[in-house]
Amino acid sequence: MGEGEHTGDAGPQAGAPPPLDETIRQVGDAGREALGATADSLRALRALLSADIAMARSAMGRALAWTGVAVVFGASAWLLATAAAVALMQRLGLSWLSALSIAALFNIGVCALAAWRTARFFDYMGLHATRRQLSRMGLFQEDDEDEPAPAPQPPQAPPPASPEAPR
Q1: Phi, psi of 15, rounded to the nearest 5 degrees
Q2: N or C, which end of the chain is more exposed by having fewer CB within 10 Å?
């Protein structure tokens, strides 16, 4: 340490603030760097989103193709299982007409159950709770043409004052 210096002294310029023009320049440079970093981040996010959508589109096509294969083989397996059940019922002594009728009734029952459940799930897709909340906020007004608008109620006269009631 030199003469007149003490431990902890930072020197003569350490405590003095930089000039105003230098501070403004540094803030401007930092702002430009932040804006550039934001733009770079957005470009990277856009590239990521684009690649993700491309991958999802490819996966959707392949999933649809494999779904088609599954439907074809599932239907053929169901037909073969039904044919085997009809042949078994016929071997057990039922007529062909009875065996085929039992198989048809079973298939119609499963079809009706599936149609009922499908209708229930389509009803869930109506976004009823969201539409109700949007209506409460005044952002989405539904005009129900099925239900007539309620007739306005005439204002009710106040009940007559009773002699016992304080005035």
Answers
A1: -90, -15
A2: C
**Per-residue model confidence as pLDDT tens for the chain (167 residues):** 555 555 555 555 567 888 888 899 999 999 999 999 999 999 999 999 999 999 999 999 999 999 999 999 999 999 999 999 999 999 999 999 999 999 999 999 999 999 999 999 888 888 888 888 888 888 877 665 555 555 566 667 666 666 665 55
pTM of the model: 0.48
3-state helix vs strand vs coil in the chain, percent to 5 = 65, 0, 35
SS3 letters across 64-116: HHHHHHHHHHHHHHHHHHHHHHHHHHHHCCCCHHHHHHHHHHHHHHHHHHHHH
The one-letter amino acid code at 29 reads: D
